[in-house]
Design brief:
Strand order of the largest sheet: 7-6-5-4-3-2-1-9-8
Largest sheet: 9 strands, parallel
Strand content: 5-15%
Order of helices and strands: HEHEHEHEHEHEHEEHHHEH
Structural class: alpha/beta
Radius of gyration: 18 Å
Low-confidence stretches: none
Distance between the termini: 19 Å
Number of domains: 1
Number of helices: 11
Shape: globular
CATH architecture: Alpha-Beta Barrel
Number of strands: 9
Bound molecules: flavin-adenine dinucleotide
Mean pLDDT: 93
CATH class: Alpha Beta
Length: 289
Amino acid sequence: MKIKDIIKRQGKSLSFEFFMPKGEEGRSLLVETIRRLEALSSTFISATQSAGDSGLKNTRRMVECIKGETSLEIMPHLACVGRSKSELRHTLEDYRGLGIENILALRGDLLQGTTKFPEGGFSYAKDLVKLAVSLKAFSIGVAVYPEGHMESPSLEVDMLHTKEKIDYGADFAITQMFFQNHFFYDFMERAQKAGIQIPIIPGIMPITDINRLERFSQLCGATVPGTLVEKMEKAKGSTDDARKIGMEFTIKQCDDLLKNGVQYLHFFTLNQGEAVIKILDSLALKPLL
Ligand code: FAD
């Protein structure tokens, strides 16, 4: 089923991002975790795509795995970088053939050491949105950035490009991770002013360890509150204590979003199923279950 229709029908959405783990053991663990999320009335699972041919193959393996073993909707991510238009069309047609009805259309990032997008492909996600629309088979999601995309010269320019991408035919958007909700609320205000009306799903990264938090936030330019870093640094001697501080922070963040009327949440699980299930067990998220 198309995510846009599920969201419309339910008026709320709870979803989870995973990547295809290595090996048979990893695969079994993934299926087991997703089965537990399935029991919690999850809306969809999204499958990341890393760079290169192996990245695309892994996403496809995950799509087949989730489709074959669970009843949840699956949404593969598809990044244009490094692929020709015909390869992208072929991939979309392949997904359509597998019965996939949802796609997250992304540009992706240049590989380290490269400075230019190759000729013959798409330079922006909006072009992939346009291609996906032309196949008339998908509900299309796009990425949006509460703190602005790292390459955008200003929040205003970022919003212009965001609006343009959505106008090409996106049905919903998922935000980059953020750790201070005012970034999301301000973004929603700017989006509304720009005339964006599709559902915007906040992307939440459960915090379980300081090194991972710092690595991911640096990669995507998300601001991490100094007080949180300080607390987690102090608790560094005990993995359990640091994890507890991080998880409590994430629960509070979700709680605040829900209290402010947010009806959709998407978790960047980093395949840490246990952490996400613990967060879902907290009182904060009950209204979404
Ligand atoms: P775009 O929308 O194309 O934007 C990229 C930049 O170009 C922005 O600065 C934008 O303002 C600018 N821009 C857009 N249009 C124009 C124009 N006409 N003229 C000038 N500038 C313009 N990456 C992966 O590789 N694999 C994944 O699985 C993956 N999953 C993600 C999931 C989510 C929820 C999010 C938020 C991001 C994900 N990413 C993933 C990262 C994403 O690929 C990067 O953030 C990338 O740098 C931008 O992708 P985009 O689709 O937002 O690009």
